[in-house]
Design goal:
single chain; 486 residues; 5-stranded antiparallel β-sheet; 4-stranded mixed β-sheet; 16 helices; 53% helix; DUF3754
């Protein structure tokens, strides 16, 4: 992920993201469209049969692995896992071993589902702006366990792990766009004050003490002639808009790229009286990048905003100047000083209660966002991931086999290009096709061969169906129809 400025008729703030390997097409639609592209009806029937046999076979491959993962998770489910652990009577060492086995299964499934671990750079780019959530939010790290994940990554090193990898991990997949239109009057006023506040702190060299978000990404200028159409997403936010009295009261549309899916894995910290064993796996959808704090575990209540700091600072200065001026006056009335101090203190109190009101609004927003954005958690998330892996694997095999069947022999590089071209032309979608993984599964199924010069070819539709053979599902269906004995 990179953060860029595009120069054109006007400056645009965009985020460039590496094209992902997810095939964003429903399997049923994929099979239907590819079948319709086949000329002969007999071949169409054979192709449909092959697609079903491919899915049933791949599902069987993963069945045992998924069952092992679900059995392990039943011991670490935050809701009911503790009771099952007590029933098992496992030693602490054996429980630790099962924990690591579960994480190994989970991370393998995440990789197969094309989820990526969010890096520090990606998170900094995402949080470099504001969208709807305008309060500074951080994690209460003392409430999170820092042993479970660290132990896993010590045994399974990853590149570019985020700074907080020992406490929680954020997986992300897919990119979308979210737009919101509103007047944003208070947000615009807050932005104007924030700009003044930032200028003041920078001038006084105090920005590190108050500004929560430090932009560590680099902005790069790129040539317009380069084609980034498929992986560039524009960010339209109030922070970069020219604000004036005219547009202060007019409706404004802001836009933010979103993470289509996010999964957060963590464990709560143990206390002196209780050792926590529950592992939380939470699944979210359509999270605006600038508001990704929504998915953070164990969030602290936010601190004061730039507007609150300015109010406190201005009221303190005004109160101090007024008191000093009164004391210097020849006729100083203690009642006047008392009134001034009361006014200043009252303003402080008013600012504090305003902040509390904003805090309540923030908590309401978080609650609503969690209700709308959270897809599932725990076992439900794992079941979704298991099915997602199967669907992706099946689609890779079907597309690559179809290309070899229709367009003839191809090297792995040629097959990769042809598959991506098919997805673009027939479905108007883009993805980074995982050709090596697809070829591996085709060879495992035995339905492709490789010639001496490194080109792959299919074995024929009927022959492919014979090689895979009738699946258990087909035999059950025939038994239900009365064709064979159950």
């Amino acid at each position: 992920m990179a953060y860029l400025n595009l120069e054109g008729d006007e400056k645009k703030e965009v985020i460039r993201i590496e094209r992902e390997s997810v095939i964003p097409i429903l399997k049923s639609k994929l099979v239907m469209v590819l079948t319709d592209l086949i000329n002969h009806s007999s071949d169409q029937a054979e192709f449909k049969k092959l697609c079903k046999r491919i899915e049933y076979t791949i599902r069987a491959w993963y069945l045992l692995q998924f069952e092992d993962m679900m059995q392990l998770y039943s011991l670490f489910d935050p809701i009911s896992g503790s009771k099952k652990l007590e029933q098992q009577g496992l030693t602490s060492e054996k429980t630790d071993e099962f924990e690591q086995n579960f994480l190994t299964h989970l991370f393998q499934v995440m990789k197969k589902s094309n989820f990526k671990i969010a890096t520090d750079d990606e998170i900094n780019v995402a949080l470099s702006g504001q969208y709807l959530l305008n309060l500074p939010i951080i994690v209460d790290e003392f409430k999170l366990d820092n042993i479970l994940l660290k132990k896993y990554f010590d045994a399974h090193p990853y590149n570019n792990l985020p700074d907080f990898y020992d406490k929680y991990i954020i997986f992300r997949r897919g990119i979308g766009i979210d737009q919101t239109s509103d007047y944003f009057i208070m947000e615009k006023v807050d932005m104007l004050i924030a700009r003044f506040w930032s200028y003041l702190l920078t001038t006084l060299r105090l920005e590190k003490l108050f500004l929560k978000r430090v932009q560590r990404h680099s902005k790069k200028d790129i040539d317009d002639s380069e084609n980034y159409e498929d992986d560039v997403y524009e960010r339209i936010r109030l922070e970069n808009m020219p604000l004036s009295f005219n547009n202060l009261l007019s409706k404004t549309t802001i836009q933010e790229p979103t993470f289509d899916r996010m999964i957060v894995v963590y464990r709560k910290a143990s206390s002196n009286s209780k050792q926590e064993r529950g592992i939380f796996v939470k699944h979210f959808k359509n999270i605006p990048m600038a508001d990704m704090e929504i998915v953070l575990p164990e969030k602290k209540n936010p601190g004061l905003t730039p507007m609150d700091w300015v109010k406190f600072l201005v009221s303190a200065i005004v109160g101090l100047v007024a008191v000093v001026s009164s004391l210097r006056a020849a006729t100083t009335d203690s009642r006047v000083i008392g009134a001034l101090l009361s006014t200043v203190v009252g303003y402080f109190i008013k600012t504090y209660f305003t902040f509390q009101k904003n805090l309540a609004a923030y908590q309401n927003m978080i609650t609503n966002a969690m209700y709308e954005k959270q897809l599932d958690s725990g076992k439900g998330t794992l079941l979704h991931l298991c099915d997602d892996v199967i669907q992706q694997e099946v689609k890779e095999v079907i597309i690559s086999f179809y290309i070899l069947m229709v367009q003839g022999k191809a090297t792995s590089h040629e097959l990769d290009q042809r598959c991506e071209k098919l997805i673009k032309e027939e479905f108007n979608e883009t993805c980074n096709f995982e050709v090596d993984d697809a070829i591996h599964k085709l060879e495992k199924l035995g339905i492709v061969t490789k010639d001496p010069i490194g080109k792959y070819q299919f074995v024929g539709l009927k022959r492919a169906n014979e090689i895979i053979g009738p699946t258990t599902e087909e035999l059950v269906i025939k038994a239900k129809k009365g064709n064979i004995s159950p």
